[in-house]
Design a protein that fits this description.
- It is built from five helices and six strands.
- It has helices at 5-8, 10-13, 41-58, 113-126, 157-170, and strands spanning 20-24, 27-35, 78-84, 99-107, 136-140, 143-147.
């Protein structure tokens, strides 16, 4: 039976309109670090590289490579960890060119570094790109988090952050980090 994150991981990927506390377990990711405006050509290319690898891993059985523990699944959505660069730290405005990010796509538990290396070789042959060498594999254990659905422009995200900050204060929660996903 196909693993579909939209059905099995609703609480992680389909947030509510109001803030909620969620426990995010340790998860594996393919990741790429960068900086700059998410509307740039470079950012779009980085997304393309990650999705090329994610689909190369998913479709390996069609190429005769069946990883140990493989199961069919829906490719997970793009995620990102965002922070302000030095120019905009402490400012109330968002300077998109100064953003620092790690974009990533979650991977099933059967994925290993060795499997990512094989996928990288496959993608290099079809769609070579210098960013392929910068993709890394790793696990992230977020633990307890506060999340909510942001509706509207990315420029209005601070309103959602304010709502989550108030939720944290009301529930006596302390932020561990000022980055966000």
């Amino acid at each position: 039976m196909k693993y579909e994150w939209r059905k099995r991981d609703k609480e992680l990927y389909l947030p509510k309109k109001n803030p909620v506390i969620v426990e995010i377990p340790e998860q594996k990711f393919i990741m790429l670090k960068g900086s700059g405006d998410p509307n740039s050509k470079e950012f779009t290319e980085a997304i393309g590289v990650l999705y090329s690898l994610a689909y190369a891993i998913k479709t390996m059985p069609k190429k005769g490579i069946v990883p140990e523990g493989y199961f069919d699944y829906t490719v997970f959505p793009l995620e990102g960890i965002w922070d302000k660069g030095e120019k905009s730290k402490g400012l109330d405005v968002l300077i998109k060119e100064d953003l620092i990010y790690t974009i990533m796509i979650r991977q099933p538990d059967f994925v290993t570094q060795d499997l990512l290396d094989k996928a990288t070789d496959i993608v290099k042959k079809k769609k070579p790109h210098n960013l392929l060498e910068k993709v890394r594999f790793g696990s992230i254990n977020e633990g307890l988090c506060v999340q909510m659905l942001h509706i509207g422009s990315y420029d209005n995200e601070p309103e959602s952050f304010d709502i989550m900050n108030e939720f944290c204060k009301k529930n006596k929660l302390i932020r561990k980090s000022y980055t966000h996903r």
